[in-house]
Design brief:
This is Sugar ABC transporter permease. The chain has 302 residues and is mainly α. It contains 14 helices and no strands.
């Protein structure tokens, strides 16, 4: 191909799907202005002494020093770590096991799938209120079990500061596991039937087939699921407010609630911006290396 031909081909490539490119301009501008601009604005004002209204009165890293000296923030970080770790593990394990069982061509599959996915259709506030009642020792599971004869049965995690975060975890798993199951089921249904037949011919047991063959083939599904779960973990707020409002004391505080309380209740925008910036940095530390290895590294290897 001559240089002139290559030069004439480039404009044609730019004009390809021109209508779609023009239609995407408002979305791109919105993302840049709102997301990137809003993020930069938040980081900038986290170095100020803003109170009720934002003001450019810079105080350096004072807000961050106060943040990491606050016991409430430390507790919220610890709770998020515990909640995030167990939420990831249990969501993936339970969701995959349910999907594997559902993939056995059981009767009434559509009914069971709808039942499992239904909690995800509820708002987190509704879910939190439902589980607040279920975990209430006077009216919920503990009361029911004692009325059946188990007088010594005790189950009140929302009223025990040592395990309150696990009570919130139960509600989160009840709501989100159905979605994970559906994502995993879609991945399983995409596996070629010949692979299952070949595994059976080779005498490979079912659990080894899942662990050694099927799960590695579903890598993309697992990554997508992890991103969805992780985004929900970082911004968890509604469940905590509906179930405990951060109590007992500050035992169930989470970063998102800390940010909201300082920005809108304590009227300390500088502290709220500093906390939200730390959340952003934490996410970036996890996401940026993964994105580089997943996309940038893959291109270089190719």
């Amino acid at each position: 191909m001559t240089a002139q031909t290559r030069g004439s081909a480039r404009p044609n490539q730019w004009l390809r799907n021109l209508n779609a490119k023009i239609a995407s301009i408002p979305m791109i501008l919105t993302a840049v202005v709102i997301f990137v601009g809003g993020t930069a604005w938040t980081v900038l004002y986290s170095f100020t002494n803003s109170k009720l209204l934002p003001r450019l009165s810079f105080v350096g890293f004072d807000q961050y020093e106060r943040l990491w000296e606050a016991p409430r923030w430390i507790v919220s970080i610890q709770n998020l770590a515990v909640f995030g770790f167990f939420s990831l593990i249990f969501s993936l394990v339970i969701g995959f096991v349910l999907a594997a069982l559902m993939d056995q061509k059981i009767r009434f599959e559509n009914t069971f799938r709808t039942i499992m996915l239904y909690p995800f259709a509820l708002s987190f506030i509704v879910t939190g209120l439902v589980w607040q009642w279920l975990l209430n020792p006077q009216y919920g599971i503990q009361s029911i079990m004692r009325s059946l004869g188990w007088e010594g049965f005790s189950f009140d995690p929302l009223y025990n500061s040592d395990i309150v975060i696990y009570g919130i975890l139960i509600a989160a798993l009840w709501q989100g596991t159905g979605l994970v199951m559906c994502l995993m089921l879609a991945g399983l249904r995409g596996i070629d039937e010949d692979i299952w037949k070949a595994a059976r011919v080779d005498g490979i047991s079912m659990w080894k087939t899942y662990v050694l063959i099927i799960i590695p083939m579903m890598r993309g599904v697992f990554i997508t699921t992890l991103v969805i779960i992780a985004s929900g973990i970082v911004k968890v707020y509604d469940l905590v407010v509906a179930q405990t409002s951060g109590g007992p004391g500050i035992a169930s505080e989470v970063p998102a609630k800390y940010v909201y309380d300082y920005m809108f209740l304590a009227q300390n925008l500088g502290q709220g911006f500093a906390a939200s910036t730390m959340m952003l940095v934490t996410v970036a530390i996890i996401i940026v290396p993964w994105a580089y290895l997943e996309f940038g590294g893959g291109r270089k290897r190719g």
